[in-house]
Amino acid sequence: FNNDSFLDIAVANNLGNNIGIFLGYGNGTFAPQIVYSTGNGSIPAMLIVSDLNNDNRVDIAVANNGANNVGVFFGYGDGSFTDQILFSTGSGSQPDAIAVGDFNNDNRLDILVANNLDGNIMVLLRDSSQPFLSLTTYSTGNHSHPQSMAIADINKDYCPDIIVANSGNDNIGILLGSDNGTFMTQAAYTTGNGSQPCSVAVGDFNNDSLLDIAIANAGTNNVGILFGFGNGTFSTVMVYSIDNSLTPSSIVVADFNKDNYLDVGVVNSGSQNVFILFGNGNGTFRNSQSYSLGYGSLAYSMTIG
């Protein structure tokens, strides 16, 4: 955030109604937290970091679940930020996930928000003069409670598509994109009765150069894999059980053991650990391993780097 070539950390403080910035020293340690308010009762649920106004400075966008809005903090490039600029997501929408991508092919990043209570996702397109005024919503189904999203080109048309985990309807939704920033009606794929998918990630797990989907299912304590056919459609879900007490809350994809095959990492709020499924490169997984996070950790999200 301060252009010193050292990585920094941004965190959404749900109960504190703020975001926190930890500037890194480059040796694994960080400066004390600098706090920016997201508003009384805002309950920030998730944030993303990117250059949202093309000034080569890192900005922050946050989904404020309690205030029904998205807040944008534009960075000055010295580790400090502007006050929050707000964009409403609608009364009672309760946004709980946020992502960015260039959805209309204008070389400007747009914002994607999942509104948990409204059962929709919202695309905020950036305009050259005044950002994020063009707003379009897409239904994810009645009582779908979308909880997580991923952006990827899953049908190889060079346009970003949206994958959303609908925890209320036990499915994932696929919305195929076009180069003008619009999306097709959702196509849904079941993740199993009572699965409550809470997190989604993409990767090529069977080395066929086609993107597949990995899902963390909080209701059935397992990981689901759907294999992509390269045209925007997917196979039925293949399930890998991890433990009946784990309650997965977040999923990531990476090659953790440097064998050139993608693996899956899951953080579990129920058992306070991280669980790794090691990939075989053919769409199957082996040698799962868990790592403790400590008593009472209640881990909710994870990232890699």
From TrEMBL:
SUPFAM superfamilies, sorted: Integrin alpha N-terminal domain (SSF69318)
Pfam short name (any one): FG-GAP_3
What Gene3D superfamilies does UniProt report for this protein, alphabetically?
2.30.30.100
Query: Signal among the record's keywords?
Result: yes
Record carries keyword Ribosomal protein: no
Give start-end ranges for the coiled-coil region(s). none
Taxonomy, superkingdom:
Eukaryota
Q: Which UniProt keywords apply?
A: Signal
Q: Which InterPro entries does this one have? A: FG-GAP, Integrin_alpha_N
* Record's protein name: VCBS repeat-containing protein
